[in-house]
Specification:
By secondary structure, this protein is α/β, with parallel strands linked by helices. 42% of the residues lie in helices and 18% in strands. It folds into three domains: 167 residues, Rossmann fold, CATH 3.40.50; 183 residues, no CATH class; 106 residues, Trna Endonuclease, Chain: A, domain 1.
Length: 469
């Protein structure tokens, strides 16, 4: 079966634009571990890659240089006896090789994977690379250099926000995000795996849209058997993944895990910055801000606006599905079987929150289903002491939509008690905000709604299918 790039439409467009441009390009690709960065570059540029090498995790300078030379010697016989002692010498050899290749309109790709692993302390790698790009690559018009890395703190500080030799030198950047539900569905179809949308959602709740995790789903799996095998059985594929992710992404001595621990115990509404500091007994300042920004940039934490009455408040919450699932179930119930755990009350409660989180990641799909995707709008949550709305779509066409999100394993019955709850939310929102706009309520559920009490109250009912558009 030929390999295929699932989804990634905007990323592929960016990579193609680099091929079509009139100049040499320096592309930074970053994103969390296992997200598919290497696969994307190798597959899209497989006809253009001239030279590539990948950093060795915890490799010494001699190890990294040897690895570089092994890859260089695999494409040319000119340097068999060369043993560079520094990165300046190594990049000089690569430059010499490139000089022997005539400049043409066809782009030539140099791919450096796990870039942060090569740039160890006092290795001299980054200055040598900066020199290679600035003094040679920019003199040609046919070179694409792609640098790729999972270490968020490094990629943001040393590459994206570089203030040295690479300052303003990155011509394009790609932050690779997890798959959305439609891409997961397409991925499974590509692999010949047939799963109902509800089962895909349940798998997504546990492991998210991380490509490498999804690779381990097998034909014939249900969400229960797949999660049990990947997360709970002895020697499970993802048993130690949480620790590995944080070890590979972030520097020692940072506050990442402390922030995550606080947020994992918070209510679904999230936490204020001051609440996190107080909970972990941390001091506000540069290190805390740096750690929080890296968690946000890496896709583990979301910073969002919540309106409490009329006052805008900035809250933080975990948005990485696997991270949440690990802290809630894998760590807590280690040694247990998911086949028993998924029937517990804790999982039912979890599903409500996790489904809501997935919906918030697919707001554009929701707007499309509501036929308001072409209308400018703001999205936020709202609460006061009496009511809470998890998603408010505040539209420029003078209408505010309050979205009630509900997970259930069957059609959701709106009884008199629940309809009174919805009416109270509308009333509290109108009175607290004093809005002059029209306000309506829609329901987004897994299987739809029933019951006469919803008539005249719920303006529109949409289901999980809209999340796959």
């Amino acid at each position: 079966m030929s390999r295929k790039i699932i989804g990634r439409a905007s990323e592929k467009e960016t990579l193609q634009e680099a091929i079509d441009s009139h100049r040499s390009e320096l592309i930074a690709v970053y994103g969390r571990r296992r997200i598919g960065k290497t696969y994307l570059i190798r597959e899209f540029y497989k006809k253009q890659i001239l030279f590539s090498f990948s950093g060795l995790r915890n490799g010494t300078l001699p190890n990294q240089l040897e690895n570089f030379m092994l890859e260089l010697n695999s494409i040319t016989k000119d340097f068999k006896n060369e043993e560079p002692k520094s990165w300046l010498q190594a990049f000089h050899l690569l430059k010499t090789h490139l000089k022997g290749i005539s400049e043409t309109t066809r782009k030539k790709v140099i791919f450096i994977d796990e870039f942060p692993w090569v740039d160890s302390i006092r290795s001299g790698f980054l200055p040598a690379f900066e020199n290679f790009w600035n003094t040679y690559c920019t003199t040609r018009n046919d070179i694409i250099v792609v640098i790729c890395g999972s270490a968020a703190s490094y990629m943001m500080k040393k590459i994206i926000k570089n203030r040295g030799g690479l300052h303003n030198r990155i011509t394009r950047k790609i932050k690779l995000e997890p798959f959305k539900l439609k891409e997961v569905q397409d991925f499974f179809e590509y692999k010949g795996i047939k799963l109902p949308e509800m089962e895909i959602i349940k798998i997504y709740m546990a492991i998210g849209g991380v490509a490498e995790y999804l690779e381990h789903i097998k034909n014939g799996d249900s969400s229960v058997t797949a999660i049990d095998r990947l997360c709970f059985q002895k020697g499970a594929q993802l048993e130690n993944e949480f620790e590995e992710v944080f070890k590979s992404l972030f520097e020692e001595g940072s506050y990442h895990e402390q922030i995550i621990r606080s947020l994992s115990n918070a209510s679904k509404k999230g936490m204020l910055r001051t609440e996190i500091l107080q909970d972990q007994e941390l001091q506000t300042g540069g290190q805390f801000s740096k750690s929080m920004n890296e968690l946000i940039e890496s896709g583990f934490v979301e910073k969002y606006h919540s309106y409490r009455n009329k006052r805008k408040t900035t809250l933080y919450r975990i948005v990485d599905e696997f991270c949440l699932f690990h802290l809630q179930f894998i760590r807590t119930f280690k040694g247990n079987s998911w086949i028993q755990l998924y029937t517990k009350r804790e999982y039912e409660t979890w599903c409500g929150y996790s489904f809501e989180l997935i919906c918030l990641k697919h707001i554009e799909c929701i707007k499309k289903a509501l036929k308001c995707d072409q209308i400018n709008s703001k999205n936020y949550s709202w609460s006061n002491s009496n009511a809470q709305v998890d998603l408010v779509i505040d539209r420029n066409d003078n209408l505010i939509t309050l979205c009630e999100i509900k997970f259930s394993n069957d059609v959701f019955f709106v009884d008199e008690q629940y309809s009174n709850k919805l009416r109270k939310k509308e009333s509290e929102f109108k009175n607290s905000t004093s809005t002059k706009k029209g306000v309506n309520t829609i329901m987004l559920t897994t299987w739809g709604i029933s019951g006469n009490h919803s008539i005249g109250l719920v303006a529109q009912s949409i289901t999980k299918e809209c999340l796959f558009q």
